[in-house]
Specification:
Keywords: Carbohydrate metabolism, Galactose metabolism, Isomerase, NAD. The chain has 337 residues and is α/β, with parallel strands linked by helices. It has 11 helices and 14 strands. Helix 1 packs across helix 8, helix 3 packs parallel to helix 5 and helix 7 packs across helix 11. The longest helix is centred in the N-terminal third of the chain and has 21 residues. Bound molecules: UDP-4-deoxy-4-formamido-beta-L-arabinopyranose.
């Protein structure tokens, strides 16, 4: 079986490559390297001990993407490729709509032309917007609150219309909560370009001395200690969820969404303390005002994925912190080491 991963050189994509190779799949990666490094794929090869095919191609380059499908027998696609910063999407909405939505349109048109109608799509919990009810179930109303989240929501709707128009399509939508951590080998991990917007890479960069101090956004939320609560899921658990979802699309048609989270929320201060314990490093921080667009609490109800995909997050918050620290301390400058 040959699987194409768009954005496969990225944080979640590279970890999914490892799990797929371990399961015996052949994989082809298409990535424009706008927010990733081809070094991650060299490290994937080192971890898995198996080769993979890589095309340095942008999904917006229809001709070159067409060639990838013409040159390879592809059984299914896992679609990770897309810009993913909430704050950046607010500043540059048009580039987010063009890159994420037009890219997906080009991909799905070419898939259709080549009769490749099985896809796992990398969606996000941001499609739920400000959800009052916790834990969040998949039938919660969808109401994105920023351009990035709206691109994910629009792509979900595009894929629903596609599946409704042609029942031979099989599509699984995976709504990630807060992916973090790193492969225990320390060879692949999160390597954001510039100053990190997500909390864990910010914490690890403070711990390794690249950044001075963590600013904790908001200490007056209605939570255990006033700081925001999130469902941090280990990226290896998330990658294993993609393998389960792939088996699902290979086996049955239709379209279904699944929340991939642990079902447990931790506050920012609880995360900082867990990291300090796991790494032995102090993380200096200051309490500052809330960040615009943040919700107070967000964590998943992962029941549907447990029952239908036979998937459950296994790794703990301590595993997440220990693995994130190993990646950062072994690679203080990420892949540009
Ligand atoms: C987590 C918590 C912050 C940074 C985003 C996207 C989501 C997904 C994951 C793509 C919050 C606090 C953060 C900092 C802080 N990405 N924080 N100081 O916002 O929950 O989710 O990333 O799919 O779609 O929305 O993640 O890591 O930015 O924030 O205090 O420097 O950490 O307020 O409570 P978020 P995050």
């Amino acid at each position: 079986m040959s699987i194409l991963l768009t954005g496969g050189a990225g944080f979640i994509g590279s970890h999914t490559c490892v799990e797929l190779l371990d399961e015996g799949y052949d994989i082809i990666v298409v990535d424009n390297l706008s927010n990733s490094s081809a070094k991650s794929l060299e490290h994937v090869h080192q971890i898995a001990g198996k080769p993979l095919k890589f095309y340095h191609v942008d999904l917006l380059d229809r001709e070159r993407l067409e060639n990838v499908f013409a040159e390879n027998k592809i059984d299914a696609v896992i679609h990770f490729a897309g810009f993913k910063s909430v704050s950046e999407s607010v500043k540059h909405p048009l580039s987010y709509y063009h890159n994420n939505i037009t890219g997906t349109l080009v991909l799905t048109e070419i898939m259709q032309n080549h009769q490749v109608k099985k896809m796992v799509f990398s969606s996000s919990a941001t499609v739920y917007g400000y959800s009052e009810r916790m834990p969040i179930k998949e039938d919660e109303p969808l109401k994105a609150t920023n351009p990035y989240g709206r691109t994910k929501l629009m792509i979900e709707e595009l894929l629903r219309d596609l599946a409704a128009s042609d029942p031979s399509w099989s599509i699984t939508l995976l709504r990630y909560f807060n992916p973090t951590g790193a492969h225990p080998s320390g060879l692949i991990g999160e390597d954001p370009k510039g100053i990190p917007t997500n909390i864990m890479p910010y914490i690890t960069q403070v711990a390794v001395g690249k950044l001075q101090k963590l600013s904790i956004f908001g200490s007056d939320y209605p939570t255990v200690d006033g700081t925001g609560i999130r469902d941090y899921i280990h990226v290896v658990d998330l990658a294993k969820g993609h393998v389960k979802a792939l088996k699902n699309v290979l086996a049955s048609p239709g379209i279904t969404a699944y929340n991939l989270g642990t079902g447990k929320g931790y506050s920012v201060l609880e995360l900082v303390r867990a990291f300090e314990k796991a790494s032995g490093k102090k993380v200096p921080y200051q309490l500052v005002g809330r960040r615009h667009g943040d919700v107070a609490v967000s964590y998943a109800d992962p029941q549907r994925a447990m029952q239908e995909l036979d998937w459950k997050a296994e790794k703990s918050l301590d595993d997440i912190c220990a693995d994130a620290w190993r990646w950062q301390s072994c690679n203080p400058r990420g892949y540009s080491n």
